[in-house]
């Protein structure tokens, strides 16, 4: 059964994925989830090295795609790619600037065989500028983007996070821009070259929070840095995420627990502005209160209150066991195949009224669809 039947989505759109690893893989899997025919073009020497480095992540980034092996170092490989370009709407690539041109596969060559093709180039720093040819990874792009300029609490430097924020931000901009450009090309008959910089994508996310800090002597004086919106340890070493940004939530918390913790029986911090000015004192107060009971006690006490709080899940097992995750069927099982095992994966996180299911086909084996795709070209 075609899980996209009844709603076209990106059905009928063909995208050639020449990228490797996370940014390009995530950009194109978003479009594949939405119905695009994404053909992963891989080299004969094992293809995307994400296959070997992290097979589970590779499987999540490449579901709903097909794989063809083409040796772009050889004339027949380049010729077959150009024949695919004739029949495609977009090409997504993540080579350094100039590499495609050096192979005779730059944008001008691609558009000579298909004037409406969209080329989406995902690089660390873009196609121009003094950093254009500099190598880099997610952490480098974040370091230069303003990401670390946005404080989360007073007196502490911002540390890195495990999620590859720049890679994923850039991938989302790439997917959105490619889908929009393909639509525009269908209307106008003219494609275009999209220049996606992971550094600039990270700056796009950090900028609305970082730039307002320019007028502050201390970035921690930002009105968004508060003592009552943080992560706190409880008595058994687990953590709670607590966020009483609005006054109504602070009052609910204080009134509910003032009998248990007398230090909360104080109206000094009942207004947002007062809690913000006293952010360090408020954080110290909450740190002391939370550590005096264990997670089971806090879960029981907080669950009946209209408060923004949550246990911090620091393992995938805890996330998978969450009742809301289970009820929403957020994680499903991707079917297996002759070349791939069945795997649990997070579904495309937008619910469409059409009932689109993103868990349709597993990541392809290296070159699994080469014969099929070349036969399509011959046909």
Structure description:
By secondary structure, this protein is an alpha/beta fold. 39% of the residues lie in helices and 13% in strands. Strands 3-2-1-4-5-6 form a six-stranded parallel sheet, with helices on both faces. Strands 7-8-9 form a three-stranded antiparallel sheet, with helices on one face. The radius of gyration is 25 Å and the shape is elongated. The model has no long low-confidence stretch (mean pLDDT 95).
Look at the structure and give the mean pLDDT.
95
- Low-confidence runs (pLDDT<50, min 5 residues)? none
SS field, number of helical segments: 16
Number of strands: 11
Q: Proportion of β residues?
A: 5-15%
Order of helices and strands: EHEHHEHEHHEHHEHEEHHHHEHHEEH
User: Structural class, judged by helices and strands?
Assistant: alpha/beta
Instruction: Please state the overall shape, judged from the principal axes of the Cα atoms.
Output: elongated
Distance between the termini: 25 Å
**Share of helical residues:** 25-40%
Radius of gyration, Cα only, in angstroms? 25 Å
Strand order, largest beta sheet: 3-2-1-4-5-6
Largest sheet composition: 6 strands, parallel
Produce the secondary structure layout:
Elements: E1 14-17, H1 21-33, E2 37-42, H2 50-53, H3 55-61, E3 65-69, H4 75-86, E4 90-93, H5 99-102, H6 107-113, E5 118-123, H7 138-143, H8 165-188, E6 193-197, H9 198-210, E7 229-233, E8 239-243, H10 247-257, H11 272-277, H12 279-290, H13 295-303, E9 309-311, H14 316-321, H15 323-327, E10 331-334, E11 343-346, H16 370-378
Parallel strand pairs: 1-2, 1-4, 2-3, 4-5, 5-6
Antiparallel strand pairs: 7-8, 8-9, 10-11
């Amino acid at each position: 059964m075609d899980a996209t039947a009844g709603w076209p989505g990106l059905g009928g759109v063909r995208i050639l994925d020449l990228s490797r690893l996370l940014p390009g893989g995530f950009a194109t899997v978003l479009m594949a989830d939405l119905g695009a025919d994404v053909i992963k073009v891989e080299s004969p020497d094992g293809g995307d090295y994400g296959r070997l480095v992290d097979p589970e992540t590779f499987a999540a980034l490449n579901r709903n795609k097909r794989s063809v092996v083409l040796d772009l170092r050889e004339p027949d490989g380049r010729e077959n790619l150009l024949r695919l370009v004739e029949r495609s709407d977009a090409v997504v690539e993540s080579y350094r600037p100039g590499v495609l041109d050096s192979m005779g596969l730059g944008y001008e060559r691609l558009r000579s065989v298909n004037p409406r093709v969209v080329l989406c180039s995902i690089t660390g720093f873009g196609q121009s500028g003094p950093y254009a040819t500099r190598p880099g990874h997610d952490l480098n792009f974040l370091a230069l983007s303003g990401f670390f300029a946005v404080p989360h609490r007073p007196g502490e430097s911002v540390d890195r996070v495990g999620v590859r924020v720049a890679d994923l931000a850039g991938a989302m901009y790439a997917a959105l821009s490619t889908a929009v450009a393909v639509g525009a090309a269908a209307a106008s008959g003219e494609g275009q070259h999209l220049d996606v910089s992971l550094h600039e994508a990270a700056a796009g996310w950090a900028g609305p929070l970082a730039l307002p800090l320019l007028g502050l002597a201390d970035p921690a004086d930002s009105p968004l840095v508060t003592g009552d919106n943080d992560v706190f340890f409880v008595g058994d070493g687990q953590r709670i995420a607590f966020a009483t940004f609005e006054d109504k939530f602070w009052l609910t918390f204080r009134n509910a627990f003032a009998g248990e913790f007398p230090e909360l029986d104080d109206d000094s911090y009942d207004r947002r502005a007062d809690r913000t000015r006293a952010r360090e004192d408020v954080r110290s107060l909450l740190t002391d209160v939370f550590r005096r009971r264990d997670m089971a006690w806090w879960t029981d006490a907080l669950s009946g209150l209209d408060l923004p709080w949550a246990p911090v899940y620091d393992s995938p097992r805890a996330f998978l066991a969450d009742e809301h995750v289970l009820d929403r069927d957020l994680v499903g099982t991707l079917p297996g195949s002759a070349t791939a095992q069945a795997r649990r994966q997070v579904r495309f996180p937008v619910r469409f009224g059409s009932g689109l299911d993103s868990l349709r086909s597993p990541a392809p084996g290296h070159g699994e669809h080469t014969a099929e795709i070349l036969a399509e070209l011959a046909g």
